[in-house]
# Entry
Amino acid sequence: MDYLQIKGVKSLNGTIKISGAKNASLPLIAMTILAKNKVKIKNLPQVADIKTLLKLLSNLGATCEMQNDAMEVDTSTLTQTKATYDIVKTMRASILVLGPILSRFGHCEVSLPGGCAIGQRPIDLHLKALEQMGAKINIEAGYVQANAPKGLKGCDIIFDKITVTGTANIVMAAALAKGVTTITNAAREPEVVQLCEILNANGVKIEGIGSASLKIHGTNGKLIDIDEFSIIPDRIEAGTYLCAAAITKSTLTLENVEPSHLGAVIAKLEEMGCKFSIAPQTMTIHPAKTLKPIKIITQEYPGFPTDMQAQFLALATQANGTSIIEERLFENRFMHVSELQRMGANITLSGNIATVVGKTKLSGTDVMATDLRASSALVLAALVADGITNVHRIYHLDRGYDSLEKKLENVGAKIKRLQE
Ligand code: UD1
# Structure
């Protein structure tokens, strides 16, 4: 198993190119199931989760091939409709194939994703919405079995909670459904927006894109004609490197970034004392002289992203004063706290609120990554810790960060990938 060995540094300096967004790529790969032709996808990040979903599609009969700089996905040869446990257990987002397979083939089986390190993460809202669209859903032997032999029908769906993959799943189901589907309380994340924009540009009329109310005009079973598209930049990867600059008091430039997707993250870094020079597709962060403490509440987009909570928690350990970080989306998303405490952080947890007292001296030691974003928080802490930190179980990190150690090494970090 690989691990990262990181030696604390004085500062970083240079430019990091941001990869395509993992969370935009996943629904867009699933969307190719709705296409009648081969689809070219550009700017896909090289991360494990993308490979997992492409493998899932290949297992179902699709062909996925890298041609020059684009992944070509052809689902016209797709014959199977069952997403099996061996793949779904490694990536919960596999559930994204349920909506498109069901709407195209009239039936689909997907293994129930099961538990997850950051909380329960049920899929009840996905299933309830599909039932409203006319699907018969059974849960049997650990699988969701969904059937709609006469196709799905448009209807009015109100999500009880805002769900990102739930919205994407239902948008894709509605794309081939008969009639109009409305979604109230839809997710407004840029990744959902890109999915809607691509469908809308390729024959599925969608009104209200970017708002909490979507209206999808289904094609009544007609497959769509998509040629190619390029994935938006990863706002969470970008936010993580902004935190790397902030924690090491460095000036870093990010390229291939979409600053407008980072509003809440930039606002918090500014509150902490960092400054920004922003232009289209590029931004430079200038460090704070002294980091100020912050209050953060995680929320749905455009609020502060839960996927940046762990990184800001690491950053707060280096702020002068008391920061309060409240996690509102996932009940168990503080697994990184005990590892940061082992490095010397002063953090008190009370339910879903972390109180971080800084500034504390962090010391390098052996720590264990527990989920994707928790892993990057440990890397950030290691960048400023005294001595050497070994971050173990980085398969979590590899799920979502494209070439993290190379990108950090290029800007001066002392970081090595080693084997246990
Ligand atoms: C997506 C992102 C993940 C991010 C999360 C929140 C992808 C692949 N993953 O995950 O990185 O952390 O959004 O921004 O895009 N819920 C239910 N029932 C459901 C669905 C969700 O109760 O059927 C709850 C969840 O437990 C959670 C909340 O709704 O408390 C939001 O979850 P959701 O937006 O669905 O997260 P994901 O789409 O899984």
Remarks:
- The chain is about 30% helix and 25% strand.
